[in-house]
Design goal:
The chain is α+β, with helices and mostly antiparallel strands. The chain has four domains: 5-75, Double Stranded RNA Binding Domain, CATH 3.30.160; 80-186, Classic Zinc Finger (Double Stranded RNA Binding Domain, 2-Layer Sandwich); 193-244, Double Stranded RNA Binding Domain; 251-308, Double Stranded RNA Binding Domain. 36% of the residues lie in helices and 13% in strands. The chain contains ten helices and 19 strands. It has helices at 38-44, 64-75, 92-103, 120-131, 148-159, 177-188, 205-216, 234-244, 263-274, 292-299; strands at 5-7, 26-28, 34-35, 80-81, 88-89, 108-109, 116-117, 136-137, 144-145, 165-166, 173-174, 193-194, 201-202, 222-223, 230-231, 251-252, 259-260, 280-281, 288-289. The strands form nine sheets. Strands 1-2-3 form a three-stranded antiparallel beta sheet. It is extended. The two termini are 56 Å apart.
């Protein structure tokens, strides 16, 4: 396979990196990735060849050191150990980024909102919040995601019966690593969520949220707009309204006796009925109607579409 390098001398055409604003004029013609220098670009080209290919999984790397680090994922070897929490890592870079969790160092700063991060990859992913970029597309339903991990989780959840995460304690399987991590607490009794006001600790974040509200009045209650009853969780409020206020319609029109269960329903009712607003339009002749069923009835005999039959 042969490769080309595209050097763009015009500064207006140079793509800026979202993190450091350095021009990246060297473009890989295979995957459109850009690089600061020719050396980085030449090294990258190796990932499109079998020069540094893993014998275990076939992945192609850019250099011998990168391939060596990659092989650790197959051997399970994790030579880098955090002296604070004991967590082990196979890659030095991951170990360094993890250490910043304990030191509080966050050297990567967003130029849009000043939010800071422990690693450059996390900043790159965060920048998609501002750009709206969703580069990871599902090949089965065309849904797009900002992170590759979100795409993989989506595929397992929506398009596969695969459950690759096993509980070491009971053998139960899960589609998502996060759900497995949460489940393991049932066996270990771990309570990682601690109250900032007292010494209480909890297994689940919702338990901490409830404790903060009830014991310290810290947080936002979910209040029933009909009777004023307070709840710590939104699902509890919705269930309450469904069971106790299903027949109540507290939003009364000021122009007529009609009442509604939701404020949005009243908001739609008023202009359509009392302001003579015609919100529904026939797409063929552009005639407007006050009610949707009138448009449907009109459409069946619309003069603008009869000749097309």
């Amino acid at each position: 396979m042969t490769f080309e390098v595209k050097f763009e001398a015009d500064s207006n055409d140079i793509t800026e990196h979202p993190r450091d604003d350095k021009p990246r004029p060297y473009l890989c013609m295979v995957c459109d990735k850009r690089f600061i220098s020719r050396n980085y670009w030449r090294s990258h080209l190796n990932v499109h060849t079998d020069k540094y290919q893993c014998a275990e999984c076939g992945k192609c790397c850019s250099s011998t050191p990168v391939l060596t680090r990659h092989k650790l994922t197959h051997s399970g070897e994790k030579p880098y150990v955090c002296t604070v929490c004991g967590k082990r890592f196979s890659h030095l870079g991951h170990f360094i980024v993890h250490g910043r969790i304990h030191s509080g160092e966050r050297p990567y700063k967003c130029s849009k909102c000043d939010k800071t991060f422990t690693g450059s990859q996390k900043l790159n992913v965060h920048m998609r919040v501002h750009t709206g970029a969703k580069p990871h597309k599902c090949s089965l339903c065309n849904k797009c995601f900002s992170q590759s991990s979100s795409l993989q989780a989506h595929k397992r959840s929506m398009h596969s019966d695969q459950r690759p995460y096993d509980c070491d304690h009971c053998g139960k399987t899960f589609k998502n690593r996060k759900v497995l991590k949460s489940h393991v607490r049932v066996h270990t009794g771990a309570k990682p969520y601690s109250c900032r006001h007292c010494s209480e600790c909890f297994t689940w974040p919702v338990q901490l949220q409830t404790h903060l509200l009830k014991s310290h009045n810290d947080g936002n209650w979910f209040i029933c707009y009909i009777c004023g009853k307070k709840f710590t969780q939104s699902p509890h409020l919705k269930k309450h309204v469904l069971y106790h206020h299903a027949d109540l319609k507290p939003y009364v029109c000021s122009e007529c006796p009609r009442s509604f269960g939701k404020a949005t329903e009243l908001k739609l009712h008023y202009p359509k009925v009392h302001l003579n607003a015609k919100c529904f339009c026939c797409g063929a002749c552009r005639k407007f109607y006050k009610r949707k069923y009138n448009v449907v009835r009109h459409f069946n005999s619309c003069p603008a579409i009869i000749p097309l039959r």
